[in-house]
Design goal:
Helix content: 40-55%
Distance between the termini: 21 Å
Shape: globular
Strand content: 5-15%
CATH topology of one domain: OB fold (Dihydrolipoamide Acetyltransferase, E2P)
CATH class of one domain: Mainly Beta
Number of helices: 20
Length: 673
């Protein structure tokens, strides 16, 4: 249900040394007490317009508030608040301090409005009950393709024959024998549509929420062959990009075997559907899961290779130095390379953020400005949030921005040595130290979000990155770039072979590190409050430019331990299957459903406990009844005749049908719930 996405490091590794911060406030040159130094740091940040860096956090606060309120205010109320803020902002143009603070309030208001705006523009009605029949639809996007099975996003869904009409905008459909389909095709096929499933675990990834804002109101599976009614326009951008991605995948599959082929497709095309579960688990345990997701690491390597190649190539043309600025031209070419890579990579949030960052950084080089700044991170965050506000609730957004904020902040607090006269040994050592440093910084920055979303850590992730990232940076990605460029000529085979070899070596090293990590990667459960505390700590960390920024994360750690640790639930109920599990003496017993269902597998992985069919409830043809070890009475009603007795005796009544309104049980979980 969720993709384990990790953010790639975006800093060029290298030797570093700590540089004492130089405050730009009037306290410069004095030895102020810590509290006074903190006040001076805050004052300096305000004076230097760093409040702009908090604008993304203002949007996030507004979005969280919009999700938390029971009911959204009417549109006229939101518009009235916006008008008042606009008047106040216009009237405070001569009072900069108040203007900046009010701008942060305006960002929070904008964030509060973004979800209803995007819901009105892109949302859809969600399918309430399954639908069967023959439907005509347009293929908008090919999400993944494995063998003859294609997972696609379809729109313009209209019934044929006796099928009932659907009120949804789009659907995600698995089309059997659909290997020849492409975006723009119009097809007709027998389909079973069903509702988008909700979260599998409490506070888990909410597929319904994100599907709504993506305009996907149902999932579906074809139950027979399809008929292609029309072929899409061959010149349409989405079809061109899809054909390029398919051609690349075909070349990879022709020259590489699994698991290397699946990982190569993930690195170049962003399609992780062919990555084997074993390879995915190995890389996650070794701290290398971020390698699978196209993000800052991959885009930086590709853009960097193009930048260096163009500079070296142009440098060989002597007269050109006097005609064009070589460095700026090379940076412009690197921008085009980054945009092209983003287009064929599938466009996840981490890739979008990284592409925006690279365009800003390389664009600064083109225009002769300072490239690597926290302001660029803020601009990238603002663009991502405004265009896709629901993405802030995805792990990919949180992991990606947490890593890059931490790395940029570390860069601000450190100063690189001059390596021009360094020996080869010193440069290699500096590179390896840079990998260790960036891995530690990014790992610590993303730890909270990894623990919350995946309940797993990578205790030896630094070691995994240390032994693998040189291979990724110097062999795997360069060979991938060259192979992709040579595919139109048919000369890609040797470079794909090199890439496949490097993937095999990476997996072998990852397997060793994962073996050493066995039993050490489980983590505590956290409540959503932990994310709020972590986000506030990151806001503090982003805002201050001096060492005082470390106070926020340091204070967040004990606060999370005190107020944000969660306990495993006593009762788990799946919404789309019959699975029900109850906690019994530290383990979980399966009360109802199949032990190999998707929900039960996720429960086992999340809570790290065996779940076997060992129900503490007594069952008959009417239903099941019994006491939980925690002391509450549970009734599972299968026949309506059981409501009369069970509603009077049970603390929790569970039924897959609607429970009568006269049921007096304190908690009722029925079909409506």
């Amino acid at each position: 249900m969720t993709d384990t996405l990790q953010a790639g490091a975006e800093l060029k590794p290298g030797p570093v040394r700590l540089s004492p911060p130089v405050p730009s406030s009037p306290t410069r040159g004095t030895r102020a007490i810590p509290l006074a130094g903190l006040a001076a740091s805050v004052s300096s940040a305000l004076e230097h317009r760093r409040l702009f860096l908090l604008w993304p956090y203002g949007l996030v606060a507004g979005l969280v508030a919009a999700v938390a309120v029971p009911e959204m205010p009417p549109p006229w109320a939101l518009a009235a608040v916006g008008a008042i803020l606009a008047v106040l902002l216009a009237s405070l143009h001569n009072r900069l301090a108040l203007l900046r603070l009010l701008s942060l309030v305006a960002m929070a208001w904008l964030g509060f409005c973004l979800l209803p705006i995007h819901g009105a523009l892109f949302g859809t009605t969600m399918l309430a009950r399954p639908a069967y029949g023959t439907y005509k639809m347009r293929v908008d996007e090919i999400v993944s393709a494995t063998g003859d099975e294609v997972r696609a996003i379809a729109s313009a869904i209209t019934p044929a024959g006796d099928a009932r009409s659907l009120p949804i905008r789009r659907a995600r459909v698995v089309i059997r024998a659909g290997s020849g389909l492409a975006p723009g095709d119009i097809i007709r096929a027998p389909v079973r549509f069903y509702g988008v499933p909700g979260p599998v675990v409490p506070n888990g990834f909410d597929t319904q929420f994100h599907a709504y804002f993506d305009g996907v109101g149902a999932y579906g599976n074809t139950t027979g062959g399809f008929e292609r009614l029309a072929v899409g326009d061959a010149s349409a951008p989405e079809r061109v990009i899809d054909s390029i991605r398919r051609a690349i995948a075909a070349h990879i599959d022709a020259h590489l075997r699994q698991p290397a082929a699946g990982i190569a497709r993930a690195l170049i095309n962003g399609d992780q559907s062919a990555v084997s579960d074993e390879a995915r688990d190995t890389m996650a345990s070794a701290g290398l899961a971020h390698v699978l997701s196209v993000s800052g690491l991959h885009l930086t390597i590709v853009a960097g290779l193009v930048l260096v190649a163009l500079r070296m190539g142009l440098a060989t043309i002597g007269p050109i130095h006097g005609l064009v600025p070589v460095k700026r031209v090379a940076a412009g070419g690197a921008v085009l390379a980054a945009l092209g890579y983003f287009a064929i990579s599938g466009g996840n949030v981490a890739a979008l953020r990284s592409t925006i960052m690279l365009v800003l950084v390389l664009g600064a080089i083109v225009f002769g400005r300072r490239a690597l700044t926290m302001r660029n991170v803020a601009i990238a965050a603002l663009l991502v949030i405004v265009t896709d506000p629901s993405s802030i609730f995805r792990p990919s957004f949180q992991l990606s921005f947490a890593a890059v904020v931490a790395l940029i902040a570390a860069w601000e607090m450190m100063r690189h040595h001059d390596e021009r006269n360094s020996s080869i040994v010193a440069k290699v050592g500096g590179y390896l130290w840079g990998i260790v440093l960036t891995s530690v910084i990014a790992g610590l920055a993303t730890l909270l979000f990894s623990v919350y979303h995946f309940q797993q850590t990578s205790p030896l992730g630094v070691l995994g990155n240390l032994v693998s990232l040189p291979l990724v940076g110097f062999v795997m990605m360069p060979s991938a770039v060259v192979a992709t460029l040579l595919m139109p000529l048919g000369w890609e085979a040797p470079f794909l072979a090199i890439m496949g070899w490097s993937i095999d070596v990476m997996l072998a090293l990852g397997h060793i590190v994962a073996g050493w990590s066995a039993g050490l990667d489980h983590s505590p459960l956290l409540t959503p409050l932990a994310l709020g505390i972590g986000t506030a700590a990151f806001a503090w960390f982003t805002f201050l430019p001096t060492w005082h920024r470390l106070i926020g994360p340091a204070a967040a750690i004990p606060l999370i331990v005190l107020v944000a640790l969660d306990n495993p639930p006593d009762l788990l109920i799946a919404d789309t299957t019959q699975a029900i599990a109850m906690r019994v003496e530290g383990d979980m017993a399966l009360v109802s459903g199949k032990s190999d269902s998707f929900a039960v597998d996720v429960w086992r992985e999340t809570y790290s406990v065996p779940i076997e069919a060992n129900s503490p409830l007594s069952c008959d043809s009417i239903g099941c009844f019994g006491l939980s070890p925690s002391g509450f009475a549970v009734a599972l009603v299968k026949d309506p005749a059981g409501f009369y007795e069970d509603c009077a005796m049970a603390d929790i009544v569970i039924a897959r049908r609607s429970v009568p309104s006269t049921c007096s049980a304190p908690t009722v979980l029925d079909a409506d719930a």
